[in-house]
Amino acid sequence: MSSYPDLYLHIKTLSFLGLICCHCTQDNGKKLCIATCQSHEWRARATFFLVQLLCFIILLNCILCTQYYYVMLFNDTGNLHSVMIFGSACLIISCSYGYLYVTRARNIQFLKDILIHYNDMLSEGGNKGGEVTNVEIKHQFYIYVTICSLNSFIAVISFHQGLGHWSANVTLILVHTFVKIVVGIVISTYVSITQMLTISMRRLNDQLTLLMTATVFGVKVDIQKLIKRRNRLLRICCHDLNPRYGLILLLAVFYTLLAAPSGPFIIISIFTNEELKNKTWLLLGASVVSIIWTIPCIVMWCIMAKCGDITIEANRTIKILLRIPVKKGQNYKMTHKILWKHLQQKPILNVLGLFTLNSRTLFTLLSTIMGYIIIMVQFNELNTEIGSYEHNSV
Q1: Half-sphere exposure of 283 toward its Cβ, with a 13 Å CA cutoff?
Q2: Residue 295 backbone phi and psi in degrees, to 5
Q3: pLDDT band for position 26 (50/70/90)?
Q4: 226 CB-near residues (< 8 Å, 6+ apart)
Q5: Which cellular compartments is it found in (predicted)?
Q6: Which letter does DSSP use for residue 35 in this model?
Q7: 368-390, pLDDT tens digit by residue?
Q8: CA–CA separation, 157 vs 353, rounded Å?
Q9: What number of H helices and E strands is found in the chain?
Q10: Contact, 357 vs 349, CB < 8 A?
Q11: 142 half-sphere exposure, CB direction, 13 A CA radius
C-alpha cells in the first residue's frame, strides 16, 4: 500500500487527467504543497481544446451514423436509451473539462487552502496526529481505482461486439470508461476532502467535551478559539466546497439516473423476449454484466451519502455547547449567538441547493431509478407490440 496520503493521490490524478494542472509535492513531514507555473497554464489550455474537439467529433459521428451504435440485442427503445447515455457521457466529459478550465484559478486556490488546513491537522498532534489522519482517509482513492477498473472491464465486455461497426465498439468502450474516470475522480476528491473536514469537526467536538469537563471542575477555559475553528470549517463547506462541486455533482446525478437503469432493463428485456429467454447462457451472461454495470454507480453514491456525517458532527457541537456552563462575557456572547443561529439544524453539504448529500438522498435516487426502469419497460413492451402488429399486417 502506498505511503502517500489520500489527498496527494487525488490531486496527482486530477493533474494527470488535465482537470487541474498543478504540481503537488510532499515533504519529509508528509505535508503537502501545490505549485503552478506557465507550463501548467499552456497544458490546461491544450487539454481543454483537445477534449472539446474530440467530444465534438464523437457526438457528430454519433448523430450522422446513429445506426452504427445500435445494439443488436435491443429494439428501438433500448437503442434510443443507449444512444442517449452515450451522448450524455460525451456532454458530461465536455462540460466537466470546460467548467474546471474556466474556474481553474479558483480551484487551485481552493486546493491550497485545503492543504493548509490539512497541514495544520498534521502539525496539531505531531506525528501521532498525522498518522491518525492518513489512516482514517487513506482508503478512498483505492475504492476509486477499484471502481474504475471494474467499469473498464464491464465496458469491454458489454461493447466488444454486437454493434454495427468496429469504430462504434471502440468509441463506446473509451467514452463509457473515461466518463466514469473523470466523474469518479472529482467525486472521490470531494468525498476525501469532506472526510478530512469531518475528522476535524469530530476532533473539535472531542476537545469541547473535554473543556466541558474542565469547566464543571472550575477550570477556566477559553472556547473562543475552538468556535472560530468550527466556523472556519463551516465556511469551507458552505462557501467553498458547495459552489465548486455543485455543477459536477449535478452532472453525476444526471448520468447515474440515465446509466444505472440500463442493467436491470437489459435483464427484463431478455426475459420478456420469447426468442431469447430460452437461451440459458445468454441470460446468465447478461445478468452478470447487468449487475456489475449497476454496482459501481450505487457504490459511489453510498460513499457520497457518508458526507452527511459532517452535518451530524456540526449538530453535535450545538448539543455540547448547550451543556457547557458559560458565564457572561466574550465567550458567552459568541456561544449565545451560535446557539441561536443553529437552533434549526440544516444540512451543510448540498448540490446547488437542490438536494443534500445523505442517506435519504440515496434512497430517493434509488426510487427514481426504479421508476425510470418501470417506464422504460412499459415503452419497451409497447414498442414490441407495435412491431408485432406491423409484422402481422404485412
Answers
A1: 12
A2: -60, -50
A3: confident
A4: 204, 207, 208, 211
A5: Cell membrane
A6: E
A7: 777 777 777 776 666 666 655 55
A8: 38
A9: 14, 4
A10: yes
A11: 9
Cα–Cα distances (Å) from 126 to 129, 133, 211, in that order, read: 5, 11, 21
Q: Is the dihedral of CA 271, 274, 276, 278 positive or negative?
A: positive
* pLDDT tens figures, 231-270: 788 888 878 888 888 888 888 888 888 877 776 776 666 6
Q: Which residue matches cell numbers 476535524? A: 200
Give the relative orientation of helices 76-102 and 262-271 as an angle to the nearest 10 degrees.
Answer: 170
DSSP state letter for 355: E
DSSP string, 72-99: TT--HHHHHHHHHHHHHHHHHHHHHHHH
Among residues 115, 126, 111, 138, the alpha carbon closest in space to that of 29 is found at: 126
Phi, psi of 357 (to 5 degrees): -105, 100
